Amino acid sequence: MQEVKELIPAPLFTNDTIVFGLLMLCLGIIFYTSSKKKGGWHSFYKIVPALFMAYMLPAVLTTLGLIAPEWEIQNANNEITEHSSSLYYVASRYLLPAALVLMTLSLDLKAVFSLGPKALIMFLTGTIGIIIGGPIAILLISIISPETVGGAGPDAVWRGLSTLAGSWIGGGANQTAMLEVYGYNQKLYGGMVFVDIVVANIWMALLLIGIGKTEKIDKWLKADTSAIERLKEKVSAFSAKTERNPTLTDYMVIGAIAFVTVGTAHFFAGHLSVFFKDFVGGMLNQTLKSSLTFLTSSFFWMISIATTIAVILSFTKAKNFEGAGASKIGSIFIYILVATIGMKMDLSMIFDNLGLVAIGVVWMTIHAGLLILVAKLIRAPYFFLAVGSQANVGGAASAPIVAAAFHPSLATVGVLLAVVGYAAGTLGAIICAELMQIVSP
Could you tell me how many helices (H) and strands (E) the chain has, helices first? Predict the structure, then answer.
């Protein structure tokens, strides 16, 4: 008897133009209500940050079946065609690098480096938390449900979890590398991608909520936030000094700076990713080959090149466009990206595979617990904790979002740490995978 495949149902709205309109409606409502200085909305946004709502409202629309990141349709001949929204791709490939350019124009690189080593320490702590969190999660869940973490050969759960380690330390390229290295059953791989989306997005949501309570958290951590405040004040002072009533010419030049940089980044990223795909593919040493897989990712090169160009521009007169609202336009792009990330989250999916989700939740809890412990010991600000975590778990798409939520000038810190994560991702994931294999039943 032929197995009947359960289709991913089509949402009510499948046209990206309509979906984008709904996302913009959500953002418009959020910004309008959050601008209220009195009443219930003011009290609400004192507890729940606007950035969190920009993430959550699209998730609610997806959960209700109004929109969806992907779906399947079966025709009269029982042929199944896969469909997906292009909005996240456009936002992450076009708007994200543009936002990074516009938010970096006013960058004071010396001030960023003056933030000290705590940002890197928290990032490395997050990496260690992922490496040790996987095997500890397997040990704990095996006590309650050994079958959840069992399996043999290509079906072994630890092999699938190695792809999570790759994603949560590095990114998509590292995740794919782990799939190849450990040969996990690709028919089961979708379950791991599902856990990645659910757990990582829940954790990001918690971090965004925490941003609204930064002062209280920093007080509890006894953190020294003086370097961060000096950087924010310096950028704010520069913005105020150069502030002017922007003209159409200003907006057109800002657009040119942003998207010419994006185009340049895409051009060189395409060539570099192809070059390194051939170069890395020809390597005989499998460990070295796997650890350098991130160099074959065009997304990695696109983000790296866009950020590099933006840093160079920050030493030129282009930085004066901050006074015309460059970082504000960049923030618009970031919020659109957040909304498209939110639409990838179906809240009802949490209950679809509770066993694997439980592993992911325990794993992420260990990651979070270690970050909190080290932040408390070295008195690191919540900013370093949140960005250090997202540079691992979320990568270059999420780290600048969380960083910019503290202040637009801090977005570059998130990108720089995320790039380090790409480099460390595969090696860290291999160590984690080997430890998970040892403790697996």
Answer: 20, 2
What are the C-alpha distances in Å from 373 to residues 59, 224, 365, 389?
Answer: 31, 16, 12, 13
* Helices 157-169 and 172-182, axial angle in degrees (round to 10): 150
Give the DSSP per-residue string, 228-260: HHHHHHHHHHHHHHH-----HHHHHHHHHHHHH
As given in the structure block, the two tokens for residue 409 are: 């000038």
In whole angstroms, what separates CA 137 from the centre of its chain?
22
> Which carries the bigger pLDDT value, residue 285 or residue 295?
295
Paired tokens of 248: 């159409």
> Shortest CA distance to 148 belongs to which of 187, 195, 182?
195
In this model, does residue 125 exceed pLDDT 70?
Answer: yes
Taking CA atoms, 212 is separated from 205, 368, 382, 402, in Å, by 12, 18, 11, 12
How would residue 1 be classed by pLDDT, with cut points 50, 70 and 90? very low
Q: Does the pLDDT of residue 308 top 90, yes or no?
A: no
pLDDT surpasses 60 at 3: no
pLDDT at 287: 66
H or E stretch covering 74: strand 70-74
Using CA atoms, how far apart are residues 103 and 107, in angstroms rounded to an integer? Answer: 8
- What's this model's pTM, rounded to 2 decimal places? 0.77
Pair 45, 208: CB distance under 8 Å: no
In the prediction, which pLDDT does 4 show?
47
Closest CA to 86 of 24, 27, 17, 22: 17
Q: Give the pair of three-digit tokens for residue 232.
A: 């924010």
Task: Name 352's Cβ contacts closer than 8 Å, sequence gap at least 6.
Answer: 194
Rounded Cα–Cα distance for residues 254 and 237 (Å): 20
Q: Are 184 and 160 a contacting pair, CB within 8 Å?
A: yes
Residue carrying the six token digits 């699938």:
160
At 2, is the pLDDT very low, low, confident or very high (cuts 50, 70, 90)? very low
The token duo for 293 is 């897989």
**CA pair distance 306, 182, nearest whole angstrom:** 33
